[in-house]
Amino acid sequence: MSGPDRRCGVLLHPTSLPGSAGCGSFGAAARDWIDLLVRQGVGVWQLLPLAPTDGTGSPYSSPSGSALNPWLIDADDLLAAGLISDTDHAGLPGGGHDRLDPALASARAAAVAEALGRHWRAQSMARHQAFEAWRQSQAFWLKDHCSFMVLRRLHQGRPWWDWPGPLAQRQGRALRQLAAEHGPELRDEALLQWQLRQQWALLQQRARSGGLRLLGDLPFYVAHDSVDAWCRRHLFSLGLDGQLQQQSGVPPDYFAATGQLWGTPVYRWWRHRLTGFRWWMNRLDVQLELFDLLRLDHFRALASYWSVPGGDATAEHGAWCPSPGNALLGKLLRRCRRRGLLLPDGRLPLIAEDLGVITPEVEALRDRYRLPGMKILQFAFDGNEDNAYLPANYEGERWVVYTGTHDNATTEGWWQSLDDDSRGRIGRLVGHEVTSPCWQLLELALASRAELAVVPLQDLLHLDDRARFNTPGTVEGNWSWRLREPISRLEGALQGYGAMAARYQRGDG
User: Fold this and answer.
1) 18-41 tens-digit pLDDT
2) d(Cα 462, Cα 85) in Å, to the nearest integer?
3) Which residues pair with 319 in a beta bridge?
4) Which residue blocks in 345-484 are alpha helix, DSSP H?
5) Percent of the chain having pLDDT more than 90?
């Protein structure tokens, strides 16, 4: 994505795709979506993390960060492949097409896993061998993931530190007993992940054959109640009882008087250094198998992070602590070079989420590895001519510019919230009256120097805040927006986007 390779992209999480019950899937609608993007010259499909969600529906605090969300399994494709029966398919819970329905999506995924397990013995020897080979190849995460998810169900969703001591402490005898007593459930969990990976791999092939890059997203921290923390607590700031010793967040600022407390364990970086960042390298390997490009969320924590005592209820009394980001990125650069995973210009396939108050040391780390940073146009119009989010102020081309992200209001909702003075000021900066805020902001993005311009699908469709995906700091009503119309109804909007992008020399590369 450098020099003449100027691209445009669309942000849409697959849970929002239409057609399947409870939740979007990796099935027909995803294939139609990829074909539509390719047909209209869109070069990048940006997604959020594909991992299972937490209890609020957020994919940024997953119980299993290397797994795929089982809600995304497509039952129609499993039926067509003969992996489940007509009776299985007909018996799946149905309904729930307007919004994401977590209870329905979970019930369907569990029913699919059971059906895959029932028919497993009848599958060919070749399939059994392929499954075993895949299981061996996923040693970093798969076995632990299956154990963790089965144990969660056995303990009614209680966090791992509240499980019986031998299981919470991962004692060998307790884990062997789990394998002996719940072998079929563990296998079914692995089968479900295998089928998810196979369905996603077909989408990857389809995208790559059309020149479409898939841009994923990696949270910086892992959830406290996660398989990662359960299995490797020595890498995190956790006590012997599993409780937080130090937790993550950001300090007080203009927007939050007591800061933000995220409640995830911070890293014991000295131990990561001792292992040559093995866990981080394996974690990134998993993600770079899934995506062509990867956005690193909360990139600033690779330079320094805000560490708060584990028992605190606010982020006020934390402290800035150094991170070994240079050593970690240097190791990753060498690893990607050996494996042929660098971009054509020799860069890491990463984007730095560098929003908020960013220090010179964070900028220096980003620039040392030539990583694109992020610009959000909704942040650009505060009346200051030197606002860093205004396209006229972008220094160089290494940027990804958005009208808004999954955490922002839709552009239509943002525009409706502005007063007349603000709207007039934006009109003067745009150069003419704003009559179509979504598309006029989008044109600013496409015309900018940024190498990649990305728009949420909601903005292409002129949707207001009823289609907003997430409102940070709230827990109700997030992550649930879905398209109601078939993908074919989006042809006009994507055609207009592709034509506008072409005028600004943004093709599919």
Assistant:
1) 999 999 999 999 999 999 999 999
2) 41
3) 307
4) 360-368, 411-417, 420-430, 437-447, 457-460
5) 92
Assess contact for 362 and 303: CB atoms under 8 A.
yes
- Residues 496 and 168: their CA atoms lie apart, in Å, by 54
Burial 26-55 (b: 16+ CB within 10 A, else e): bbbbbbbbbebbbebbbbbbbbbbbbbbbe
List all residues 6 or more positions away from 4 whose beta carbon is below 8 Å from its beta carbon: 505
What would the pLDDT profile of 316-327 be if each residue is shown by its tens digit? 999 999 999 999
pLDDT at 3 over 50: no
Residue 129 pLDDT > 90:
yes
Task: Give the amino acid at 198.
Answer: Q
The CA distance from 392 to 384, in Å, is 12
Q: In whole angstroms, what is the distance from residue 492 CA to residue 498 CA?
A: 10
**Look-up of token digits 């009614």:** 156
Active site residues: 297, 353, 407
Structure tokens at 397: 């081309």
CA-based end-to-end distance of the chain: 9
Q: Is 454 helix (H, G, I), strand (E, B) or coil?
A: strand
What's the predicted TM-score (pTM) here?
Answer: 0.96
- Consecutive H or E run containing 352: strand 350-352
181: Cα within 13 Å, side-chain hemisphere: 10
Per-residue model confidence (pLDDT) at position 508: 55
| Angle formed at CA 448 by CA 446 and CA 451, multiple of 5 degrees | 80
Q: Hunting for tokens 């009503």 — which residue is that?
A: 477
Could you tell me whether strands 350-352 and 452-456 are parallel, antiparallel, or unpaired per DSSP bridges?
unpaired
Distance between CA atoms of residues 466 and 464, nearest Å: 5
Residues 6 or more apart whose CB falls under 8 angstroms from that of 96 comprise 21, 22, 23, 104, 105
144, two tokens: 């632990």
CA distances to 50, 101, 174, 474 from 20, rounded to whole Å, are 17, 11, 39, 27
- The sheet that has 293-296: what strands, in order across it? 350-352, 293-296, 213-218, 44-46, 7-11, 452-456, 399-402, 373-376
The predicted model gives 239-249 an average pLDDT of 97
| Per-residue pLDDT band at 2 (split at 50, 70, 90) | very low
Do residues 34 and 501 touch, judged by C-beta distance below 8 A? Answer: no
Torsion of CA 413, 414, 420, 424, to 10 degrees: -120
Q: CA gyration radius for the chain?
A: 23
Q: Measured between alpha carbons, how far is 226 from 61 in angstroms, rounded to an integer? A: 9
Nearest Cα neighbor of 284 from 217, 365, 346, 372 is 217
Task: Give, as one character, the DSSP assignment of residue 226.
Answer: S
CB 418 within 8 Å of CB 428? no
Phi, psi of 129 (to 5 degrees): -65, -40
Q: Which residue has the tokens 């490009």?
A: 293
